[in-house]
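Re: [ENG-882] Designed sequences occasionally contain unexpected residues at chain ends

Forwarding the minimal case from QA. Structure tokens:
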């Protein structure tokens, strides 16, 4: 059972006897107000994180004392959900996870693997459709050099897609939205938008990227000191310099204009100066990139709110700070008739934890 599945199960049927496989993200020895020692441990898998406490008189206390961050473990116990404390566990035990189980945990469920494979295919198909050979070569070089890191990076530390593979999920959804809007607004530069969507958050490969064998959202000094917008600009320029440029002098639009417009999309995608963009969006493509980025982040936060807690009597969820609202349960879909049931597979579906 994943942490996400466990949280959902305990909200619906508490308590739950369960076993989860996870990685220790952080483990800290503390003292309660009465001086009683305990360990606070944060665990993470491909879906979410979980915080548990092990008191001195528990079996887990000894296991925590000999454990350290980065280790993979199997946690077994009786888990319950409360409105005050969220997910908690009684009498839980922790043991090392065998190597073969670690490999399976890092790969994720079959459903998760299929989701990320589809997301990556969306990106590669979009790149293959680029007509401008310069932007196409640039995107190919990025995917060939950094594709593995792109597949495992998170989109953020919190708020949205804050999980291994989250950046790929986020970017592929943005790509689908951008391509759909190109059909509505044919005046848009489709090639530029595809490259802009692909590159807009590539700095996060060094700002919010788990290690090859881990789920913890780590950063390198480059990510801490420069931030992902600056790194993304640097990455585009570095890859551009290394491309072979035979015949570029006669291409229209001019190669330097292509490079500058792509850099503008990366630099302006936060949309506002106070949100970190050094410049505001000044082209239709830059504005659209900003909006599809914001749309997908907000949809993810709404969907996460619906899966993370019980609704009040009026359908209201807990307050979500980045959204600035307490989400309300959405309207259910109109039921399918017998005549339309054949198309049920392609009909819109209510959000479920399976997407996580």
């Amino acid at each position: 059972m994943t942490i996400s599945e466990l949280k959902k199960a305990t909200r619906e049927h508490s308590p739950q006897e369960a076993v989860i496989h996870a990685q220790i993200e952080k483990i800290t020895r503390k003292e309660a107000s009465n001086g009683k020692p305990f360990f606070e441990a944060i665990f993470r898998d491909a879906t979410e994180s979980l915080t548990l406490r092990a008191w001195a008189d528990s079996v887990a206390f000894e296991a925590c004392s000999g454990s350290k961050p980065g280790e993979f473990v199997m946690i077994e116990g009786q888990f319950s959900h409360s409105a005050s404390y969220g997910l908690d566990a009684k009498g839980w035990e922790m043991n090392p996870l065998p190597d073969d189980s670690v490999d399976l945990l890092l790969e994720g469920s079959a459903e998760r693997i299929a989701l990320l494979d589809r997301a990556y295919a969306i990106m590669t198909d979009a790149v293959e459709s680029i007509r401008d050979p310069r932007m196409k070569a640039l995107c190919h070089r990025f995917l060939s050099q950094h594709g593995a890191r792109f597949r495992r990076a998170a989109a953020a530390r919190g708020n949205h897609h804050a999980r291994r593979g989250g950046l790929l999920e986020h970017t592929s959804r943005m790509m689908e939205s951008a391509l759909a809007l190109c059909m509505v607004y044919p005046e848009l530069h489709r090639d530029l938008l595809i490259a802009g969507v692909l590159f807009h958050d590539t700095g996060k490969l060094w700002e919010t990227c788990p290690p090859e064998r881990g789920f913890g959202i780590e950063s390198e000094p480059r990510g801490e000191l420069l931030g992902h917008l600056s790194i993304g600009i640097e990455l585009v320029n570095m890859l551009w310099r290394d491309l072979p440029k035979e015949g570029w002098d006669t291409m229209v639009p001019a190669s330097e204009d292509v490079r500058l417009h792509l850099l503008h999309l990366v630099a302006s995608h936060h949309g506002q100066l106070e949100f970190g963009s050094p410049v505001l969006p000044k082209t239709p493509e830059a504005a659209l990139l900003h909006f599809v980025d914001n749309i997908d982040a907000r949809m993810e936060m709404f969907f996460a709110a619906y899966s993370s807690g019980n609704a009040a009597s009026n359908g209201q969820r807990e307050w979500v700070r980045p959204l600035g609202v307490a989400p309300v349960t959405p309207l259910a879909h109109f039921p399918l008739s017998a005549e339309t049931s054949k198309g049920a597979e392609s009909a819109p579906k209510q959000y479920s934890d399976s997407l996580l």
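QA comment: On inspection the terminal residues look reasonable. The longest helix spans residues 284-308. Proposing we downgrade this to a documentation issue.
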